[in-house]
């Protein structure tokens, strides 16, 4: 992407930093995560405390949400996006970006397309440059619709359904209903609500979202062919899963290296991802997991805040920390198993 000299990126900074544009051009990025390796050509705006704000404003706990029915989960999309996106727009970082003059021009805008759509106001604000979509969630059904890539419910199971690509007639029928229902809710609720929010925060005229989305130039899909069921992709959808994984592995901190070198039976890396934290699990679920870990011969690297699981006994083979150098840990030859949800590229290490 050497031809892109001046790029605005919204979210997914980690994945986007691995794009070649980041090495050769000027990048303005906004992200909820601190830039760990600042470089001269990259200006990083931080949406500070956004995870905490989101956690505070959630209408359902993640546990209640995932134990609800498929239709409950689909109906939660719009209110959830409304709360999260509004909180993000009100953050100091986004306010700073909003104050940039509208005459500012970028060669391209790279933006997340999964439930942050109120940010599409920036596309209109900065004069509708070519837009590249990216999502950490693979290819969601509505993305297929606006990118024009095939979404065939007869062999592509919806992400909320426990089906494989081999479905019987009833499963195919149900999958067809769910895929079309989620697209209906997305097109007539999520996207229109997001457009209303954008109109409130962006004084410039915001293009109608249906036109704007169908005008995306490219979509970088966080999928790895071979890990997902096979599916046809139109040429504007490019699989880039694993793009962010560094090929040079930094040495592990001494204490962690010692723990892992001593792990004769290997180790298991257990992380619930960015949004759901181990300490947020109900006490009975956390205890059940820890009891299961205690019975294993491996050491378990468990991502969670040690100070917040007071009252629960952590078995001696469990190393509980709120942060691990994941690239280094997963690059170790003796990794036994990796358990990480929501973020497929982590599996690629194994
Ligand atoms: C910054 O951008 C300029 C112009 O595109 C380029 O020549 C230079 O190598 C870049 N510097 C870094 C550190 O990436
Ligand atoms: C579609 O994108 C092109 C640039 O890629 C831009 O010139 C045009 O204004 C965009 N149209 C809409 C409706 O956003």
From TrEMBL:
Stretch forming the signal peptide: 1-21
* Gene3D superfamilies (UniProt xref): Glycogen Phosphorylase B (3.40.50.2000)
Q: Which is one Pfam family of this protein?
A: UDPGT
Give the top-rank taxon of the lineage listed in the UniProt record for this protein: Eukaryota
Q: Which InterPro entries match?
A: UDP-glycosyltransferase (IPR050271), UDP_glucos_trans (IPR002213)
Q: Which UniProt keywords apply?
A: Glycosyltransferase, Signal, Transferase
**Claim: S-adenosyl-L-methionine is one of the keywords in the record:** no
Write out the similarity annotation.
Belongs to the UDP-glycosyltransferase family.
Q: What is this protein called?
A: UDP-glucuronosyltransferase
């Amino acid at each position: 992407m050497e031809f892109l000299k001046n790029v605005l990126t919204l979210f997914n900074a980690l994945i986007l930093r691995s794009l070649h544009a980041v090495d050769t051009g000027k990048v303005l990025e906004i992200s909820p995560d601190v830039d760990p390796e600042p470089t001269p050509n990259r200006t990083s705006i931080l949406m500070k405390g956004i995870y905490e704000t989101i956690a505070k404003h959630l209408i359902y706990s993640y546990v209640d949400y995932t134990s609800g029915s498929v239709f409950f989960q689909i109906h939660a999309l719009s209110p959830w996006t409304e709360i999260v996106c509004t909180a993000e727009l009100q953050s100091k970082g986004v306010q700073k970006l909003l104050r940039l003059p509208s005459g500012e021009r970028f060669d391209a805008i790279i933006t997340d397309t999964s439930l942050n759509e109120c940010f599409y106001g920036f596309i209109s604000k900065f004069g509708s440059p070519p837009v590249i979509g990216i999502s950490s969630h693979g290819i969601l059904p509505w993305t297929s619709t606006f990118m024009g890539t095939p979404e065939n419910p007869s062999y592509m199971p919806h992400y909320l359904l426990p089906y494989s690509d081999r479905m019987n007639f009833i499963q195919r029928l149900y999958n067809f209903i769910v895929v079309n229902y989620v697209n209906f809710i997305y097109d007539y609720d999520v996207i229109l609500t997001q457009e209303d929010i954008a109109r409130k925060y962006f004084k410039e005229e915001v293009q109608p979202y249906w036109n704007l989305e169908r005008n995306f130039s490219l979509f970088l899909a966080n999928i790895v062919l071979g890990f997902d069921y096979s599916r046809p992709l139109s040429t504007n959808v490019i699989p880039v899963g694993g793009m962010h994984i560094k090929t040079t592995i930094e040495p592990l901190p001494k204490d962690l290296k010692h723990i892992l070198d001593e792990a004769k039976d290997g180790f298991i890396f257990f992380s619930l991802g960015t949004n759901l934290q181990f300490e947020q699990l109900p006490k009975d679920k956390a205890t059940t997991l820890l009891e299961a870990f205690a019975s294993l011969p491996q050491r378990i690297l468990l991502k969670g805040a040690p100070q917040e699981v007071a009252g629960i006994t952590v078995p001696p083979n469990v190393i509980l920390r709120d942060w691990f150098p994941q690239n280094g840990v997963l690059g170790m030859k003796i990794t036994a198993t990796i358990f990480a949800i929501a973020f497929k590229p982590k599996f690629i290490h194994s």
